[in-house]
Amino acid sequence: MAAIVKTAKRDDWAGKFGARVAAVISNKADARGLIFAHEQGIATHVLDHKAYASREAFDAALAQCIEAYDSPADPALVVLAGFMRILTPGFVNRYLGRLVNIHPSLLPAFPGLHTHQRAIEAGCKFAGVTVHQVTAELDHGPILAQAVVPVLPADTTDELAARVLTQEHLIYPKAIADLLQNK
Fold first, then answer.
1. Domain ranges of the chain
2. Helix (H) or strand (E) holding 16
């Protein structure tokens, strides 16, 4: 999220695309990104998923929260970054084509959790990161960008994750800028 915010400011997305990072919304009050966003003058909001009786109720509240920040038009994009919740089909359909996520594997390989450990256990020579559009099927939306890193023979999951993270910070802002440019 910080890499996206920094890139948006540096590359003047407001001037180029008429887009801005309107808000950072988290389901966790202790998310570090909230502090960073606040320091950058970006609106923040915490929406605790545990306070809702169902996924649908949480997603309805999340959509209402998003739409409170998107005046005067619908959001160009809803960007997920470290948001570890499975969204309902209703929420996904509401933002279909405008909802993007980043996943720490070379999709379609290793959707879901524990991607780095699974890549190491499978004997992969390469791992990486994928930016994709979100669909109702978990980690199966159209691929927008990927970056590859080597899996080294002595890698731990933390070492591999750190190498992947450096690529995440490079490709996610670029993929978002590409989407905005094409809108």
1. 2-182
2. helix 13-17
Q: How confident is the model at residue 44 (pLDDT cuts 50, 70, 90)?
A: very high
Paired with 129 in beta bridges are 147
Q: Which pLDDT does position 74 carry in this prediction?
A: 75
Catalytic site residues? Answer: 103
Please enumerate in sequence order all residues whose Cβ is within 8 A of that of 130, keeping only pairs 6 or more positions apart, or say none.
102, 103, 105, 106, 107, 143, 145, 146
8 A C-beta contact, residue 182 and residue 16 = no
Report, as an integer, the average pLDDT of 8-26: 94
Give how far Cα 102 sits from Cα of 12, 44, 79, 148, 153, Å: 22, 21, 9, 14, 25
Tell me, rounded to whole angstroms, the distance of Cα 63 from its chain centroid.
16
pLDDT tens, 90-129?
999 999 999 999 999 999 999 999 999 999 999 999 999 9
What is residue 169's predicted lDDT score, i.e. its pLDDT? 97
> What are the backbone angles phi and psi of residue 2, rounded to the nearest 5°?
-60, -40
CATH superfamily, domain 2-182, is Formyl transferase, N-terminal domain (3.40.50.170)
